[in-house]
Structures are given as structure tokens and as C-alpha cells.
Amino acid sequence: MAITVNDIRNKQFKMEGRGYNCDEVDDFLDALAEQTEKLIRENTGLKNELAAAKEQAEAAKAAEKTALEAVHTPAVQQDAPPAFNEPSYFKNLETTLRETLISAQRIADETIDDARKKARRIVAEAEEHVNTLQEQSAQKMAEARADYDALKNASEEYRRNFTSLVEEQTRLLKENPIFN
Question: pLDDT tens digits for 113-144?
């Protein structure tokens, strides 16, 4: 079972004889709870940022796909009867349509290329952002682990020193002729 911040804040120690100084223990546990709470908030924030960056990358990929599909969808053609029957009219119309189609194809190709470049750039930026966030998260987790280990070691050392002090005082009291 994982220890929560509330478990740390609400931990009560049994008193035995002259036990620990309650204020010192409470202060230590409060400081430990605050640091743990801060690390949890940071970790949650980093996870949220990572999820948002992944969503942004997915949206960019979807936009690229939609743009490609839109460009390759044929336009609806309308069959309108010509207004004139003159050969030069149809020849000019054919030339104009050919030039329009060539121009439309060129514009479509350029639009597709631009959309692909933009989508690749957005995806690359999003992936770079995700990688940066992952690295920062890993670094902060390592720092948090180091802080936790340092606090744990300090706590253990404090307990050893305190136990040693109590044992030494007990020995001195037993050796003192006044108390025998």
C-alpha cells in the first residue's frame, strides 16, 4: 500500500516512556509531506503537458491526412450546353480549360507539398517537445528520487543518533550512584 501525503500528515506515533519529541517528529513529517505533495503536483503537470503534446502531434497528422484527401477528391462537374456553335469558340474554350486544369493541378501540387511540409514540421516540433518534456520529467523524477533518498537517509541517521543518545543517557543514569 502506497503512503499518501495525508498518511504522512496524519501519522500518529505511540508514546512510550520519554519517546520522541512530538513537535520535531510532526515538523519533520510536515516537511516531508510538503515535498512529496510538490513532487506529485509537478509530476502530474508534466504528464498533462506530455499528453497535450501527443494530442497536438496526432491532430497535425490528422490535418495532413484530411488535406491530402481533400486535394485528391474530384470536383463535381456540371454539363452546361455551349452558347455558340462556332469552332473558334470551342477551340478557345478547350485552350482555356486546358490552361485552367494545368494551373489548378500545379496549385494543388504546391498546396499538397506545402501541407506536407507544414505537417512534417508540426509533427517534428511536437515530437521534439514531447522528447524535451520526457527528458525533463525523467530528470525531475531522478531529482525527486535523490531528494527522497537523502530525506530517508537523514531520517535514518537522525533515528540512529537519537537512539544512541538515549542509550548513552540511560547508561549514564544507571551508572550514576544517585539513581541506584
Answer: 888 898 899 888 888 998 999 999 999 999 99
Half-sphere exposure at residue 148, Cβ-oriented, CA atoms within 13 angstroms: 12
The pTM of the full predicted model, rounded to 2 decimals, is: 0.35
Q: What is the number of alpha carbons within 13 Å of residue 38 lying toward its C-beta?
A: 12
Question: How far apart, in Å, are the Cα atoms of 107 and each of 3, 55, 59, 71, 160?
Answer: 62, 30, 24, 10, 78
The span from the CA of 98 to the CA of 18, in Å, is: 100
Give the 3-state secondary structure of 71-134.
Answer: HHCCCCCCCCCCCCCCHHHHHHHHHHHHHHHHHHHHHHHHHHHHHHHHHHHHHHHHHHHHHHHH
CA–CA dist 49, 29 (Å, integer): 30
Task: Tell me the pLDDT tens digit for each residue of 65-86.
Answer: 776 666 555 554 445 554 555 6
